[in-house]
Amino acid sequence: PQVDSANAGRVLASDAAVFLKKSGLTDLVLGKIWDLADTDGKGILNKQEFFVALRLVACAQNGLDVSLSSLNLPVPPPRFTDTSSPLLLSGTASSDVPWAVKLEDKAKYDAIFDSLNPVNGLLSGDKVKPVLLNSKLPVDILGRVWELSDIDRDGMLDRDEFAVAMFLVYCALEKEPVPMSLPAALVPPSKRKPISVPAAMPLIPSSSSTKESHQSLPPVGILAAKTPLTQ
């Protein structure tokens, strides 16, 4: 009922897109989900097709492949960040999950990281690319690995993000599917946001994302203070 406002038993692409975006998945993944669900390509989903889309969202959120073969697998219901949705507040805080990268593996990944000459503890995409390509994995898989591991979306990987990238590459080499969205267990502890919101509080996703984009920029004051020294 939330999406089918006219109650016509079908959902238009535009309405569904707005709703599906709340799942937190990338547009690429949502496009794939839509293509699989909209079987006749009319840009409209009937009730059955919409349920297929929801199940595929749940598959992607739980690290399963987005394909019709995943539809029969048991998955928890999809999660949407919507203030009126009770689903959002159920489940454990992701900050409690132990990190999937084991200590001895982390040491290996750190050694590779250091060998690539990081600058200020960061590796640019150009430095990471040869390592990824070296795995001989398909380019689309490597693109997804990069997208998932660059958690703060700054085009660079720090030590922890690089470990996530390596972990995903090794998973893919073991023929395990690379998830469509980063499972909570794979998010490095340094990147987890402490969840201090009491359960009764509605979470407002938009304000937190705008804050993040500001944080990644250095404060202008510092830049201005530096310039006279260099001259």
UniProtKB/TrEMBL annotation:
<feature type="domain" description="EF-hand">
    <location>
        <begin position="137"/>
        <end position="172"/>
    </location>
</feature>
<dbReference type="InterPro" id="IPR000261">
    <property type="entry name" value="EH_dom"/>
</dbReference>
<dbReference type="GO" id="GO:0030132">
    <property type="term" value="C:clathrin coat of coated pit"/>
</dbReference>
<dbReference type="InterPro" id="IPR018247">
    <property type="entry name" value="EF_Hand_1_Ca_BS"/>
</dbReference>
<dbReference type="GO" id="GO:0005509">
    <property type="term" value="F:calcium ion binding"/>
</dbReference>
<dbReference type="GO" id="GO:0016197">
    <property type="term" value="P:endosomal transport"/>
</dbReference>
<keyword id="KW-0479">Metal-binding</keyword>
<feature type="domain" description="EF-hand">
    <location>
        <begin position="25"/>
        <end position="60"/>
    </location>
</feature>
<feature type="domain" description="EH">
    <location>
        <begin position="1"/>
        <end position="81"/>
    </location>
</feature>
<keyword id="KW-0106">Calcium</keyword>
<feature type="domain" description="EH">
    <location>
        <begin position="105"/>
        <end position="193"/>
    </location>
</feature>
<dbReference type="Pfam" id="PF12763">
    <property type="entry name" value="EH"/>
</dbReference>
<dbReference type="GO" id="GO:0045296">
    <property type="term" value="F:cadherin binding"/>
</dbReference>
<dbReference type="InterPro" id="IPR011992">
    <property type="entry name" value="EF-hand-dom_pair"/>
</dbReference>
<feature type="region of interest" description="Disordered">
    <location>
        <begin position="205"/>
        <end position="231"/>
    </location>
</feature>
<dbReference type="GO" id="GO:0006897">
    <property type="term" value="P:endocytosis"/>
</dbReference>
<dbReference type="InterPro" id="IPR002048">
    <property type="entry name" value="EF_hand_dom"/>
</dbReference>
<protein>
    <submittedName>
        <fullName>EPS15 factor</fullName>
    </submittedName>
</protein>
